[in-house]
Amino acid sequence: MRPKVWMPAGLWLVGWRYLARHRWQSLLMVLGIALGVAVMVAIDLANASASRAFELSTEAVVGRATHQIRGGPEGMDEEIYVRLRRAGLGIPLAPVVSETVFSETLGNRPLQLLGVDAFAEAPFRSYVSAGGALPVESLSTFFLQPRTVLLLGETAERYGLGVGDRFRVEVAGRQTEMVIAGLLDPPDALTRRALDGVLLADIATAQEVTGRLGRLDSIDLIVTEGQTAVLMQAAGMLPAGTRLGPVAERSQAVEQMTAAFQLNLSALSLLALVVGLFLIYNTMTFSVVQRRELFGTLRCLGTTRREVFWMVLSEGVTVGVLGAALGMLLGVWMGRQTVGMVTQTINDLYFATTVREVGVPAASLVKGGVVGVLATTAAALLPAWEAASVAPRLALSRSGLESKARRAVVWTALAGIGAMLLGVAAFQLPGNGILTGFGGLTAVLVGFALLAAISLVGLMRGAAPLLGRLSGFLGQMAPRNLVNALSRTSVAVAALMVAVAVTIGMTLMIDSFRHTVQVWLASTLMGDVYVSVPSTTGTTPMTALDPQVVETARSWPGVERMYVTRSTILDGEQGNVHVSAMDNPGIENERYYQALFVPRGQLWSAMQAGSVAVSEPLARRLGLMEAGAVLRLNTRQGWAAFPVAAVFYDYASSEGSLLMSRGVYQRYWADESVTALDLRLGAGVEADGWARELQSALGGQQRLLVRSNQTLRADVLAVFDRTFAITLALRLLATVVAFIGVLNTLLLLQFEKQREVGILRALGLSGGQLWKLVMLETGLMGMTAGLLAMPTGYALALVLVYVINQRSFGWTLQLDIRPEAFLTAFGWALLAALLAGILPAYRLGRMPAAEVIRYE
């Protein structure tokens, strides 16, 4: 229904006809907003798919369990389950053994080996209760034959496997042959998605394959609201070192773990949309200028200000709806390309997951569409108000808007300074919130954008005399034309400046991050060769080495010293904590410390006495930055307090970690496992060749990563580069939208200057001179955008390094300024502007002079 209350139907037709007549102008607006919406939808879909993948894998493991009992690094004794069963608690209980494994046969991706007791499963996981739809032969094979698993039928079909087929899986670096006893065929699609990466085994098989005989990872419980007393009774029966808690705790921990990463990605995805808004505003403003005679006539004929306002605004809404619709379709396609990069980053930094398909939740599409339409409407408000507010006599004047734009230059600049001060004030607010940080960043960016007009005027006035001497009257005309069309050129310059400034800011931040990581690696990796089992993520390996591997490496010729590390996850009062227990007494000299709470040279002694050193992200997350801080951990003897002796810089994980003496760790957790070796070789031993020899000698015992110091550094930096790969794509898309904005502005200016150019052509201006004039104008716009982008990009880099990164991930980066980042970005701004001038120059050159001079 057309809102006739707002405006007559005839005015709707006028607006529609204008959009239809100016097809290229309308198409560029739709394309600009579509790209912005598409990037936002794509990132939202990728984030949602990665999060949903974790939820599905969690659902496959925990089923309908409400609570879980979890053990320490070595799990828990299965006697705990027996004791709870015999206690007659009257609630469902089920033991679970779970391990991430790999199989080349099944795509060499992370898989979940899930060991369960089928006779206790009915209340928890319906797809294995009583065998589900499995035939009797499959059930008997599953229960009676060793090393058998159940596999989703669709997964088996994808890889050409069937019942009775054998395939190999890698568990903790060792190859094991498994047999498919049966194929699962759950009735609903959600369960099928959840089981896509699951190998279901009898609990005895899982214990044998993982080397955890007599041990469990967890015990699932279903506790209703009225059974609090039963829950308390079960908790009272548990030994020290175990913990009973809601299943939701783990999901919440993972959500918190990835929230900052996904929020940063979402914020960056809005960049293309923000740049697109400059395009919408610029085009709508020009459409108002183009039709000022029409608006003046309509006003003289009795059309009200409100009707003119709704007429122009409806055009913007129409463009927004079309652009949002196209953007949603494009976003689904882009999401399928993007999800791999997002998933890889999550795998590298947080946890192993596999996203086999991109879900298309309606919420992501609706959010993208609504934001696109609302943003376009907001961008069209000012032009609509401008059209409605001009008196009929002034509307018939050609220079009214430009005169007003030039008079407003100083006030716009003051507003920009005010926005920047507001952004700086936002950084000072207590709480260190990420959203507050992004709000301040946006205010700073808007502030610099509002300086585009005064910068353009100042630079053009300064450039005109020099260009006049170099290029004659064309050199004076080009800057004057840009100032005379300030209401459009300043917005195009601002859009291009924002895209280029963000490129500079992101490049400086990434370069600073990379430089900081390189310095950190140089201080942390002091060994010559490192040995570990391949990890399912890009972070610290936590799979135990075979004891024989440790002894072989210790006695291998060329080893001067060997330090061992046990990395694991412990239960803390405020959530899980990553721990590295080591026996290296020189640890104080192999880290950079933000704070040292013991006398220098006594850190190792303090750690041997029970103190710990915590990384900066962990210290910030748990509030351990002050002297006297204590961290409480759940040990095999119960809860124990560990004084914090130091806070060290660390960039391995945004979740943070702590360092502990291995002797203290063994005393509290009785765990002799080793997950990594740090080998110091004798003088003259070539590390790479020595590492290859050791790899060959140990390869038959366990699949290992034996890497020299240099190779390990390269691997860490490769993970780093993968992490930021997606930001390059987002920055390029924003630049493309800005390019469209500059192109659209030049096409609009070309339309407005037809008579002027026709007169110049009639007076003898050659085609080459016309090209020179257009290229001078576009070059000056690109130069202004590039110059203004330099201080803007530097300011953004400061905010990203010292505010956003610290609030999002908890680490401090060292700003690394490289001139090539500024020069490259300036070159891109100039090139984008010059390329955008080719089509307008070509079209102007083909216009017949006599036709464009004619008034009627």
UniProtKB/TrEMBL annotation:
Residues 267-390, 732-848 form the ABC3 transporter permease C-terminal domain. GO terms for cellular component: plasma membrane protein complex. The keyword Ribonucleoprotein does not apply. Residues 26-228, 489-695 form the MacB-like periplasmic core domain. It holds the Pfam family FtsX. Keywords: Cell membrane, Membrane, Transmembrane, Transmembrane helix. It is a multi-pass membrane protein. The keyword Cell membrane applies. The chain crosses the membrane at residues 27-46, 265-289, 309-333, 370-396, 408-429, 441-464, 485-510, 728-749, 770-803, 823-844. InterPro entries: ABC3_permease_C, Lipoprotein-release_system, MacB_PCD. It is found in: Cell membrane. GO terms for biological process: lipoprotein localization to outer membrane. It comes from the Bacteria. Belongs to the ABC-4 integral membrane protein family. LolC/E subfamily. This is ABC transporter permease. It comes from Levilinea saccharolytica.
